[in-house]
Amino acid sequence: AAELEGRELDTKATWNAICLADMGDTGAAFVALPQIPPRNVAWFKKGKWVHMAKIAFEKYFIRKMKKGSSEPIYEKYILKMLGIGKLK
Question: What predicted TM-score, i.e. pTM, was given to this entire model?
């Protein structure tokens, strides 16, 4: 809204990335904070647990969308505890 009104933006996106990639019965997970280098955090793990985590996340996400809740309060605070924010 500020940009449309010709005012300077007072917030910026953080461009953080959290990804669960499913590959058959295994998978890969990575976190990149921020998404574009130079990064403060770069983490990568693979294994069967990622496949199970992705299934759980998909069920959670579909339930969340059916209820019409884009960001439940607990999700916001859990990400904040992990140091992952949407805005600077």
Answer: 0.69
